[in-house]
C-alpha cells in the first residue's frame, strides 16, 4: 500500500503531515492508556515485536505493484488481536519508518500518507472489534466470520485511504480511477487470506497456554473482557 512518489506532491503533501500528526498523537494516547492499565514493559515488549513483524511484512513478504500502489500482506488485524491497539499502531508506524529509512528512502516524503493509511483503519477496526466480539469471549475462540469482518474493515480502510490520496493528488480522470480500481480489487483479495492467518495464530496461542498472562500478548487473547 505504499504511496508512490509523485502521487501527491507540492503543497498538497502538507495535508499528509497533518493527518499523520493526528494519527501519531492518538497512538501516543493509546500507549499512555496501556501504560496506566498494564505496564510500560508490556508496551515496549509488544511494540518491539510488532515492529519487527511489520518490517518483515513490508520487506520480506511478497509484494507487487498494482495500479496506484503496491499490494502487501499487512496483517493489521493479527497485530491488533495479538498485541492490542497501542503496540500494533506503534509497530506499524515504527516498522514502516525503519523500512523507509534504511531500505526505501525514496518513500520518506510519503511517510505521512503511508502511516495515516495504516493507522486510521487500525483505529476504526479496534472500535469495530468491541462491537463484533462479545465481552465474554476470548480472542482464541473467535470464528472466521468475526475475523473476516475485522479484516474487511482494516483492508477496506487501507484501500479507501489509498484511493483518497490518489484522487487528491491526480484527480478523477478515467486512467487514475482505473488504477485505483485495479489496486482495490487486488488488495481486497488479502481479505480472504488474513482471517485464516488470524485463526491460525490464535489456534497456536490456544494450544500454547503457557503464554497466558505473559506480557507479550494482549490479555483478551485468553480472557474475556
From TrEMBL:
GO terms for cellular component: plasma membrane. Pfam families: CbiM. It is a multi-pass membrane protein. It is found in: Cell membrane. Coiled coil: none annotated. It comes from the Bacteria. The chain crosses the membrane at residues 12-32, 44-61, 73-99, 111-129, 150-168, 180-205. GO terms for biological process: transition metal ion transport. Keywords: Cell membrane, Membrane, Transmembrane, Transmembrane helix, Transport. The keyword Transcription regulation does not apply. InterPro entries: CbiM/NikMN. This is Cobalt transporter. It comes from Comamonas aquatica DA1877.
Amino acid at each position: 500500500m505504499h504511496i508512490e512518489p509523485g502521487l501527491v506532491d507540492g503543497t498538497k503533501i502538507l495535508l499528509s503531515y497533518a493527518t499523520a500528526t493526528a494519527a501519531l498523537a492518538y497512538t501516543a494516547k493509546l500507549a499512555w492508556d496501556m501504560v496506566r492499565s498494564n505496564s510500560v514493559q508490556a508496551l515496549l515488549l509488544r511494540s518491539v515485536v510488532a515492529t519487527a513483524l511489520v518490517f518483515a511484512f513490508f520487506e520480506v513478504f511478497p509484494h507487487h505493484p498494482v495500479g496506484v500502489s503496491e499490494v502487501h500482506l499487512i496483517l493489521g488485524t493479527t497485530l491488533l488481536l495479538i498485541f492490542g491497539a497501542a503496540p500494533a499502531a506503534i509497530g506499524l508506524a515504527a516498522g514502516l519508518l525503519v523500512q523507509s529509512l534504511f531500505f526505501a528512502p525514496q518513500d520518506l516524503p510519503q511517510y505521512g500518507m503511508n502511516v495515516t493509511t495504516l493507522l486510521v483503519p487500525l483505529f476504526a477496526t479496534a472500535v469495530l472489534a468491541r462491537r463484533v466480539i462479545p465481552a465474554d469471549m476470548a480472542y482464541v475462540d473467535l470464528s472466521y466470520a468475526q475475523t473476516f469482518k475485522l479484516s474487511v474493515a482494516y483492508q477496506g480502510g487501507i484501500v479507501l485511504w489509498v484511493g483518497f490520496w490518489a484522487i487528491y493528488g491526480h484527480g478523477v480522470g478515467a486512467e487514475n480511477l482505473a488504477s485505483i480500481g485495479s489496486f482495490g480489487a487486488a488488495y481486497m483479495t488479502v481479505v480472504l487470506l488474513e482471517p485464516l492467518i488470524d485463526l491460525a495464530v490464535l489456534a497456536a496461542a490456544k494450544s500454547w497456554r503457557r503464554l497466558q498472562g505473559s506480557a507479550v500478548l494482549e490479555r483478551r487473547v485468553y480472557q474475556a473482557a
